[in-house]
Amino acid sequence: MVTVAGEGFEDSISSVISAPKGPEDRPTVGDWLLVDASSRNLVRILDRTSLFKRLAPGDDRRLQLIAANVDTLFVVTSCNQDFNVARIERYLVLAREVGVRPIVVLTKADLSTTSGLFLEAAQALQAGLQVQLVNARDPESVSDLSAFCKFGETIALVGSSGVGKSTLVNTLKGTDDIATQPVRESDGKGLHTTTVRQMHRISIGPQGGGWLVDTPGMRELKMSEVSAGVAELFDDIVALSLECRFSNCTHAGEPDCAIRAAIAQGTLEHDRFARWQKLAAEDEVNSDNAMLSRGRQRKVRRKS
Questions:
Q1: Fold of the 64-214 domain
Q2: pTM of the predicted model, to two decimals?
């Protein structure tokens, strides 16, 4: 079942879709479709400019599509206990892998007395990374984000539940028709206000007419087939590794290891190095599993 908007369609319809060959052949939010007007059947999915996907939680073999044709990714987190460098980096890796412009949006800046520290921590994740401090309820505060809300542009919002994604969507739309819920004060965690991925038309911005994709909070974000994104986000560490004496250096105890030298000199944080190792290792394992899974699926299709 797919909800479709377009000329000749009233609100939403159920479109009959032929059995797809694989997960990426299924329509997902943000897709542009060619649909037969009389039968309401899907003819084909138009070529995508970008596609966000992840391994489904609890299942290393099933691929889950998140959003397609995204131009800008708002990585939304708040200036409180939700702020988590490792989680933000995972979203940034996805954006770099897909080739989409990431913007880190720090919400609830009006409720924090240390918002500047959160800003510095986010900016330190990568040189040139754009970071915005906002009060998601204040149109003036989010006005800088409207520069990305251009006609024909699609913005996707990702982040944990309770960080203010739905509030931000309401403000950018100029409405309050999306329900929001309070967070627990003890740990800053929120309930899943948004339970499905959906698109909203933007009414503000230089030209207006863009689209926002609101996504549910993701409790698990596994890395798979994102080696290019990892390398781009951690390009400083990759460059250092090329200076090691041995090309297969594990950075554990080999002599003349440039990475260990940088850590000792204080020019590279050990925590950042550890996060890079973890993401790279996770991506390698999951990518190998995904390749094996596709091979098994091809064998099954050939037999059938």
A1: Rossmann fold (3.40.50)
A2: 0.81
